[in-house]
Amino acid sequence: MRVLRIRHLLLSLLAGATVLLSSCRKEDEIIPSTEEQGGKPEPAGPIKGFFLLNEANMGSNKSTLDYYDYETGKYTRNIYAERNPGVVKELGDVGNDLQIYGNRLYAVINVSHLIEVMDVRTAKHIGKISIPNCRYIVFKDGFAYVSSYAGPVQIDPNARLGYVAKVDTATLKVVAECPVGYQPDELVISGDKLYVANSGGYRVPNYDKTISIIDLKTFTEEKKVDVAINLHRLELDNYGKIWVSSRGDYYKVPSKIFVFDPKTEQVTKTLDVSCSNMTLAGDSLFVYSTEWSYITGANTISYTVIDTKSQEVIDRNFIKDGTEKDIKIPYGIAVNREQGEFYVTDAKNYVTPGRLHCYDLKTGTRKWTVKTGDIPAHFAFTRYELQPLKPSTPQQ
Fold it and tell me: Which of 49, 54, 255, 301 has the least C-beta neighbours within 10 A?
């Protein structure tokens, strides 16, 4: 269940206490990692593997970190707990973003109001950055920029404006804050400008509909530009255009994708393509959608590829072997062009372990699948080998 999606937030707030209590871990219990064979062992290229952050159900404090090793083909679940036995409550509540910058791994933990900073080679704790209701993170020139809803995690027609926090990655300290729109989500950097998608999701039905443009030199908001209601995802293509997704209102206004030109600061094209998540690989924008309707009480799921050069849809189903029928709720997507693979995760029922499916990028056929943690969502490819866990020294 993703907090940033209003319908899932409402479902979480209404969920029974029994579900939440049954999914909590004891604070003094260290749950060991488990391993499963994924793909075939193969020589590792520049990318050695990837981390996968599992969001987990809000209130369960069960966000976990998995790792896949290309050279061995091994998929390891829940590596954080045993590598950081001294960290109370482990990763925390609802993992919302995962990125690598330099030799550090940054996990944005939304409901715990913090960013967990780890050594990318060991996944061991380095420090924490406290930011309320933090959402997404990007980097430039030694600084991290983090979107924050600012207020508590709750639907509120009077919810306050959000902001972007500027963090010094050397000290892990917040050095400045820039107010933006309501409930800001994803961010991208183009040149010396930071673009922020404002959702206004907590203020339903009075959603925000703007992109905030921040001058990084002065760290001030230059302006807001109207795009569409309930904005969410941003991707910067190879031609300087920003692809923007709108969730719509889940009732009468459908989700769509917009092309935003930073030079003119205007929307130049609208595509009638629903979008829950998207990732760019070369000139191909891979988009999946789980479009929920409160009217029908059902999801419409789609897998689309858009050519960002022609700005046209070129594929209406990038999974070619029928195995999309095995995916109940697509929830994460990533592409590794060097390995010739793409990955789609399945959140299943949001409260039990999900699955990760690996596909051949050329043929769209499934290569392997493994079990993950609860609500697998966010990928981070690493060029560093993850060091094995050293066995503990027996006590005398």
Answer: 301
Going by their DSSP bridges, the two strands 114-119 and 104-109 should be labelled as antiparallel
Q: What is the dihedral of CA 350, 235, 183, 93, to 10 degrees?
A: 30
Instruction: Read off the amino acid at residue 386.
Output: L
Q: Does the model's pTM come out above 0.70?
A: yes
CA–CA gap between residue 80 and residue 89 (Å, rounded): 11
Q: Using 70 as the pLDDT threshold, list the residues of the chain that sit under it.
A: 1-28, 391-396
Q: What is the pLDDT of residue 18?
A: 32
Written as six digits, the tokens of 145 are 């920029």
Question: Which tokens sit at 293?
Answer: 């309707």
Nearest partner of 153 among 197, 207, 109, judged by Cα? 109
Q: Are 285 and 243 in contact (CB under 8 A)?
A: yes
Spatial separation of the C-alpha atoms in residues 106 and 118, rounded to whole Å: 6
pLDDT value for 391: 66
Cα–Cα dist 392/395, whole Å: 9
d(CA 319, CA 325): 10
Task: Note the pLDDT of residue 43.
Answer: 83
What the block records as the tokens of 323 is 């195995």
Tokens of 222: 């230059």
